[in-house]
Amino acid sequence: MLYSIFAGWIGANAAVKSKSRVAIDRSPIGPFQCGPGLCTRMAGISGGIAVAMNAYGAHFVLANADINDERKRAMTYAINHHFINCIGMALAGVGAHYPTLTASMFLISTVLFSVPSYLFAIRNDRRLRAVTPYGGVLAMLAWFSFVL
User: Fold this and answer.
1) Taking the alpha carbons of 56, 57, 62, 67 in that order, is the dihedral positive or negative?
2) Non-local CB neighbours of 53 within 8 Å, separated by 6+ positions
3) Four-CA torsion 75, 80, 85, 87, nearest 10 degrees
4) 58 part of a folded domain
5) What is this structure's pTM?
6) Cα–Cα distance for residue pair 148/144, rounded to 1 Å
7) What is the tens place of the pLDDT at every residue in 80-103?
8) The total number of structural domains that make up the chain
């Protein structure tokens, strides 16, 4: 009798524990949970754009003798940053405790760092260059968010 009560209690607790692990919403953003599938899709789309920008940069920016070295370096840094953030987005879905926060930080970092750098390299537009340091800092914070 005592064994059956004890076994039932252990079984009930085990079921509750396993249920609670699955049901935990670790997203600070509410219902917009970024699981492995969504993070992988975000990384895939961003990676495709990074490959396209790499091809454009190689054929039209880096190969153009009329474009100065500063703009060519900006294109190279933007592409590298973009690719590294794609890797971070993909890893966020499987390795981060707060995948939505981490993947969002990588995505926003890409927009804040790479887009102004692309605009500067391609169109010589310096208006948004002031926000690039914020994109770099956000990328650092996104990588640090893996240890939260």
Assistant:
1) positive
2) 78, 79, 82, 114, 118
3) 140
4) yes
5) 0.77
6) 8
7) 999 999 999 999 999 999 999 999
8) 1
Name the residue with tokens 């294109």: 75
Which pair of structure tokens corresponds to residue 5?
């009560």
The DSSP result for 48-80, as a single string, is HHHHHHHHHIIIIITT-TTS-HHHHHHHHHHHH
Structure tokens at 109: 């970092």
Residue 28 lies in a domain: no
- Residue count of the chain, please give it: 148
- Higher pLDDT pick, 93 / 20: 93
Give residue 32's pLDDT band: very low, low, confident or very high (50, 70, 90).
Answer: low
Per-residue pLDDT at 34? 72
- The verdict on residue 53 lying in a domain is yes
